[in-house]
Every structure is written in structure tokens, then in C-alpha cells.
Amino acid sequence: MPTPFPEEFRRDVIAVARKGDATIEQVAKDFGVSASTLHRWLKIADDQDTTQPGGAQGDSAELKELRKRNRLLEQENEILRRAAAYLARDINPK
């Protein structure tokens, strides 16, 4: 059985993933964890964030759905950005 990652490491990876500069898969690859592990960590962190004192319980389902939608849109945006760069490379050879 693999040894668990330290809590501090998990927090750092989650913070980088939430920043949205790269896709979840790329962040997972950069830190040497599987994408499914990172998705699970993010889900656990989201659940913990919504159950913290001061969070509205009625809005938690909507907030969770909005975060999921935001993450999907950021991933789609990154794919389109990379595709545009790839196609622009073929149009304007240097």
C-alpha cells in the first residue's frame, strides 16, 4: 500500500489546482500524483470548505455546482488556447 501524502503537500497541490493556471491533469502530472487522486482531494477540500462555520448551507449545492462548472470552463478555455496557438503556428511560419 502506498504511503499517504503529507497534509501540507496536499494543501499546496490543491492551491495550485484551484488557481486555474493549468488543467487538473497537468497539475497532477507536475506534482507526481494521479489525476483521479487530485480530483478526489479537490472534492474533499470543497466539501470541507462548504461545511466550515460561516458558510451558508442552502447555497452549498449551488456553490458546488458553480465551482464544477467553472473548473470545466477553465479546462475548455485552456484547450482552445492551446489549439489556437497550434493552428497559428501553421499559419505564420517564421
Description of the structure:
The chain is mainly α. It has one domain: Orthogonal Bundle (Arc Repressor Mutant, subunit A). 74% of the residues lie in helices and 0% in strands. It has four helices and no strands. The chain has helices at residues 7-19, 24-31, 35-51, 60-91. Helix 1 (7-19) packs across helix 3 (35-51) and helix 2 packs across helix 3. It is flat.
The second-level CATH architecture is Orthogonal Bundle
Q: Please count the beta strands (DSSP E, at least 2 residues each).
A: 0
Give the helices and strands as they follow along the chain.
HHHH
Alpha-carbon distance between the two ends: 51 Å
What key attributes describe this structure?
mainly alpha; 4 helices; 94 residues; flat; single chain; Arc Repressor Mutant, subunit A
List the SSEs and their pairings.
Layout lengths: L6 H13 L4 H8 L3 H17 L8 H32 L3
Helix pairs in contact: 1-3, 2-3
Give a brief rundown of this model.
Helices cover 74% and strands 0% of the residues.
